[in-house]
Write a structure and sequence with these properties.
The protein has 2 domains: about 190 residues, Fructose-1,6-Bisphosphatase, subunit A, domain 1 (Fructose-1,6-Bisphosphatase, Chain A, domain 1, 2-Layer Sandwich); about 120 residues, 3-Layer(aba) Sandwich (D-Maltodextrin-Binding Protein, domain 2). It has 9 helices and 15 strands. Bound molecules: 2,5-anhydro-1,6-di-O-phosphono-D-mannitol (AHM) and magnesium ion. The site of magnesium ion has 4 residues, from strand 5.
Length: about 325
């Protein structure tokens, strides 16, 4: 009997994969590899703490608000601390902007060539009810000279400048999905071994799909074009699926084909999601997987940022679905 039938081969682990694909990076460097490994390590710690949250008094509201006035969960703050520490220790990152911080966080490692924009724990209001949540991250090369103190210019770059981006989904299994601009690869966490293994190589998203995802509770104040598109979806008997946890909704649609919409609405003339922490990273991933992301007027990754915390409408997913939405808009 063949060996492989007795012992199923396990995929490459994340460390080995990153190392063996280093030469594919635009700027081949061990530093970016190390940085991705630091991200993965922090995500394992968060995964561990999140699994026990209800038992160790980590569930629930922290009683504070972030820069945009959102109520912070204890785990939002915890995840933020874990990532800041892991990325500071690594030394490759000179500055971080995070959904949970008012201002740029300077790591003090001015020799670091990279800056990070991230949402350490997206959808965290879902934790207490055991719904999947995620981490979203974008990695950029700094603009200012290495060795100097980083400035806002380093952190406020267009999505097209990302050198890597991805997300971690803490779900029925935990996955690390990332791109460095050469396609998308997904890794599943094996808890017993404490390692991510390649489970979704060269991930591509279907060109078209049947799933649309949006918060229809806001639909009375959606732009007319979005309403027209949603009516089209219903006329065509598509499937409405909305978890209310962006990474989970995005991940499902990426694998199955679909569109996620967070349009402008009465309380949010620019929608709800943040360009720097959520939209750019997922736009890079979806484009690398063959899909599309727009704010309704332009490609997400071409939006010129003016504020760390700025919001923008997001329409993201299978190419043909986003095309049809754009026609309606
Ligand atoms: P958060 O970053 O404060 O967690 O908010 C973002 C979340 C997304 O995960 C999700 O898609 C969206 O907010 C849901 O918003 P709503 O409850 O308005 O539908
Ligand atoms: Mg978020």
């Amino acid at each position: 009997m063949e060996d492989s039938r007795i012992a199923l081969p396990i995929g490459a682990n994340l460390d080995r994969f990153i190392k063996s694909h280093e030469s594919h990076f635009k700027y081949a460097s061990g530093e970016l590899s190390q940085l991705l490994r630091d991200m993965a390590l922090a995500s394992k710690v968060i995964n561990r703490e999140m699994n026990k949250a209800g038992l160790i008094n980590l569930a629930g509201n922290a009683g504070s608000q972030n820069a945009q006035g959102d109520h912070q969960q204890k785990l939002d703050i915890l995840a933020d601390i874990r990532f800041m520490r892991a990325l500071t220790k690594g030394g490759e990152v000179c500055a971080i902007i995070s959904e949970e911080q008012d201002d740029m966080f300077l790591t003090g490692k001015n020799n670091g060539k990279y800056v990070i924009a991230m949402d350490p724990l997206d959808g965290s209001s879902n934790i207490d009810v055991n719904v999947s949540v995620g981490t979203i991250f974008s990695i950029y090369r700094r603009k200012t000279e290495v060795g100097t103190t980083p400035t806002a210019e380093d952190c406020m770059q267009k999505g097209t400048e990302q050198v890597a981006a991805g997300y971690i989904i803490y779900g029925s299994s935990t996955m690390f999905v990332y791109t460095t601009g050469n396609g998308v690869n997904g890794f599943t966490y094996d808890l017993s071994l404490g390692e991510y293994f390649l489970s979704h190589p060269n991930l591509t998203t279907p060109d078209d799909g049947k799933i649309y995802s949006c918060n229809e509770g806001n639909s009375n104040s959606f732009p007319d074009g979005v309403t027209a598109y949603l009516n089209q979806c219903k006329d065509n008997e598509m499937t409405g699926r909305y978890i209310g946890s962006l990474v989970a909704d995005f991940h499902r649609n990426l694998l199955k084909g679909g569109i996620y919409l967070y349009p402008p609405y009465r309380k949010g003339p620019n929608g709800k999601l943040r360009l720097m922490y959520e939209c750019n990273a997922l736009a890079f991933v979806v484009e690398q997987a063959g899909g599309k992301a727009t704010d309704g007027k332009q490609r997400i990754m071409e939006i010129e940022p003016t504020d760390f915390h700025q919001k923008c409408p997001l329409y993201i997913g299978s190419k043909k679905m986003v095309d049809r939405l754009e026609e309606c808009l």
